[in-house]
Amino acid sequence: MATDSKMPRLSERLVWIDLEMTGLDVSKEEIMEAAVLVTDSELNVVAEGPNLVLKVDGTVLNQMNDWCKSHHGKSGLTDACRKSTITLSAAEDQLLQFVTQHTEKGKAPLAGNSVHADKRFLDKYMPKLMKHLHYRIVDVSTVKELCR
């Protein structure tokens, strides 16, 4: 069977993850929302994954800084987190299941905008997911800075 040399391989994919958190201090803040999609090396969307709102304890939500309270409050995310039944563990399992369907273990780097911040939270709270990804990251905010 002939193979199309232009068909992107699983090893040439990027995993784009965007998190919303209760703040930026990974030692005390939590993940509120996680969204994922997979692209090929030419940035064509291969698959759109789940967009998950996680259950966050009211005490943690009440301790957010003013910017987070305002931003997440206006967007409705804070209320959605209070009502959600999705645990951190369940969210990690869903994200990992999606990513493993579309990428080879250890091949696809994490990608995003200022994704280094998201990576710190993923390393702490979703280590199974991070073990599936390549150790490199693709941070598009670097390109933005270089173009200034």
TrEMBL record:
Identify the CDD domains for this entry. Answer: Orn (cd06135)
Query: One MF term from GO for this chain?
Result: 3'-5'-RNA exonuclease activity
Per the record, its GO cellular-component terms are: mitochondrion
Task: State the SUPFAM superfamilies in the record.
Answer: Ribonuclease H-like
Question: Keyword set for this entry?
Answer: Exonuclease, Hydrolase, Nuclease
- Which family is this sequence assigned to? Belongs to the oligoribonuclease family.
How is this protein named in the record?
Answer: Exonuclease domain-containing protein
